[in-house]
Every structure is written in structure tokens, then in C-alpha cells.
Amino acid sequence: MSSSQPKKKFYLILILGMLSAIGPFSIDMYLPAFPDIAKGLNTEVSKVMLSLSSFFIGISAGQLIYGPLLERFGRKKPLYIGLSIYMLASLGCALAASVNALIGLRLLQALGGCVGMVAARAMVRDLFDVKENAKVFSMLMLVVAVSPIIAPTAGGYVTALFGWRWVFAMLMIVDLIVLAGIYFLLPESKPPDPAFSLKPVPILKNFAGVIKHPQFYTYALTAAISAAGLYAYIGGSPSVFMGVFHVTEKQYGWIFALIAMGLIGASQINSVLLKNYTSEQIIKVALACQSTIGLILVALTLLGWGDLFITIFLIFLFLCCQGFTFPNASALSMAPFGHNAGSASALMGAIQMCIGACTSALVSIFQNSTALPMAAVMACCAIGAFTMYMVGRNIIYIRARAEAVAKGEVEMVSTL
Predict the structure, then answer these.
(1) What does the entry list under GO cellular component (predicted)?
(2) Poorest-pLDDT segment among 86-90, 229-233, 339-343
(3) Which of 22, 187, 276, 298 lies in the 20 to 30 Å Cα band around 400?
């Protein structure tokens, strides 16, 4: 895309960012309503938290479905279908009569809404040069990261004024806005490919070809494990802030928004740093810092020194590191795949959400009315991501060196 089209580029990034934000918005907006939902459905907050885990599971499975569909039918038709499913499921959530119904409908809502996340990543690869991808992902994160500022704050006020069911009505309105943006602003970036098979065996072979690529699995897993720390925070923060520190729903929304500003700021600073540093260099430093911050958070929680303000400050720093890691790792994992970006995007998203669902569930399972389960899972995710990055980089280096040696031997033979 040429630099002579800044207005067009702005609208493209805006709508792609909104598509990417559907999932986070659907998560963040109802977090302040957990106590109200539990009261309204005569259950416990820990049971309501399972609706968050079911949402993560739905996103994980759904992305694997939409990857092949985006290759076969182009980008826009699957978007219309998925977001229509999301609309109907949101209506069901608003009318849910039991927590089990809510858990099931949240699964369906995720299966519909996750199409936006898959399509957005694939379209970045379709519409922009590979060298621009990390910067574009950073700009997408600016739009995505606005959702943790707007969504929980809006959700807290909507819940306080009208009740938790109206949160899902608001999500339906957001869905309508996104559908309008797709229709009027988003071009079809990839024509349908009738030759792309939707049979299970070719699809699995295609996914296998992507996942066995060292650059893909190194950076996709690095991004996913690191992001799992964010999902552990999302899953555990209602209990920690409203249960342990006894803040109100409205105060929780503002705390969530404040912490999210770290993610926004870091993702934009990342764009500036890319002028002088490589994505690999930025990831390495960010993950080392994130691991250290996670360990400090665990230590202070164990010692009983982690009061409200210290906890907020350390989580803020933790998410700042996430703002540097995710856009760079996403760009590097997608870089080798121009012809099947949809499948690569689906796999990356599925891995991310699957690990996120597990960490969210772990925080719920080990809930003990303290901040320790959330802090411990966050720290483990940061350390795990750093380890994956270091091991994966060695594998990539060894493979590249072996290929260079083999190529040199072939060239020597050809000159004899």
C-alpha cells in the first residue's frame, strides 16, 4: 500500500482494529458485571468465571474453522456469517435464565465473533508489505487496547444503571457498527479460491505445513504464552480487585482502564523502536523484563506486601511488556506465509486462545480469596514465553545454518 493513501490506510487500520477488538471487547465489558450476574442467576462468581473460559474455548475452536473458510470463500463472506452468529448469541446471553445457559451461549458467541480476529490478521498480511506488518500490528493494538479502557468502564456503568443483561445488548450494537464498517470501508483483500479444499485431510495437511515451520511455532507460541499472562489477569482481576481489595464496580472499570493504558502506550512506543531495533531484540528485552516483574508480583503477594496500589503498578508494568511482545511476535510468525495467511492466522489465534483458556481456568480453579493464583499464573506465563523464545531462536539459527551449509555444498558441486 502506497504512502499516498494515508486516509484509506487509516480507515483500513481502524476497521481491522475493530474486528480484532470484538473478542477483547466481549470479554472486558462484562467483567464488572460478574457479581451482578452471579446474584441474578443464583450462583457463585467462580461459576460465572467459567463463562469466560467457555468464551476462550469457543475462540480457539472457531478460529480453526474460519481459517479454511477465509481461504476458500474470500475474507468478507465468512465475516458476515460469523458476526451474524455473534449477534444471535449475544441476544441469547441477554435472555439467559441460568448460568449454564450463559456458559453455552458465550461459547456460541465466541464461535461467531472470532472470525474478526482471524480475518484481521490475514488481511494485514494481504494488504500490507511484510516489512510494515509489525508497525501495522502495533497500530491495530492501539484500537484493540482502547477496548479495555472503554469496555469495563462502560460495562460497570451499564450494569449499575440498567443491570447486567443490558451489557449484552450493548455488544449487539457494537456488532452492528462493525458490520457496517465491513460493508462500507473494507475491501475484499483476497478473492475466493474454489480450488482450496474444505475436506479434512487437505485442511490438516495445510495446518501441518504451517505449524511445523520453526519461525511460526517459535513466535506463535511466544506470543500465545506471553498473552496468556494477560488472560490470567483478565480472568482473575474481578475477584482480586472487587473481592480482595473491595473496590466497587465503577472503580474496577477505571482501574482496568488505567492498567490498559500501559498496553496502549507500549504498543505505540514499539512502532518508534522498530526504526532502530529489530523485532527480535525488542521481544527479548520485553520478555526478560516481564518475567522479572511477574516474579516480584508473586514475591510481594506471598509476603503480604502487595497492597492495591502496588498490585496495580506491577500489573501496569507487566502489560507494558506485553505491548512490546505481541505485535512483533505476531508479525514474525505470519511473515513466511503469503499464500495461506488465513490458515496461519487461524492457527496462531487458536493456539493463543487455547492457552489463554487454560490459564483463565487455572486462576478460577486455584482461587483462594487472595491475589496469589492470578500473580503466580501471570509469572509462569512470562517465564514460559521467555524460555520458548530462547529455545525457538536456537532452533531457527541451527536450521538456517544447516541450510546455508547444504546450499554451499550444492554450489561447490555445481562448479566442479
Answers:
(1) plasma membrane
(2) 339-343
(3) 276
Give me 205's grid cell: 495437511
Residues 6+ apart with CB under 8 A from 186: 12, 15, 16, 75, 76, 123
User: Could you give phi then psi for residue 307, rounded to 5 degrees?
Assistant: -75, 180
Q: Determine whether 374 is exposed, middle or buried from the number of CB atoms within 10 Å of its CB (0-12, 13-18, 19+).
A: buried
Q: Which residues contact 383 (CB under 8 A, 6 or more apart)?
A: 291, 294, 295
> Per CATH, which fold does 12-186+209-408 belong to?
Growth Hormone; Chain: A; (1.20.1250)
Q: Do 325 and 226 meet the contact criterion of CB atoms below 8 Å apart?
A: yes
Kindly report, residue by residue over 228-267, the tens digit of the pLDDT. Answer: 998 899 888 888 998 889 888 778 878 888 888 888 888 8
Q: Which three cell numbers stand for residue 114?
A: 472470532
Q: Show me where the domains of the chain are located.
A: 12-186+209-408
Query: pTM (2 decimals)?
Result: 0.73
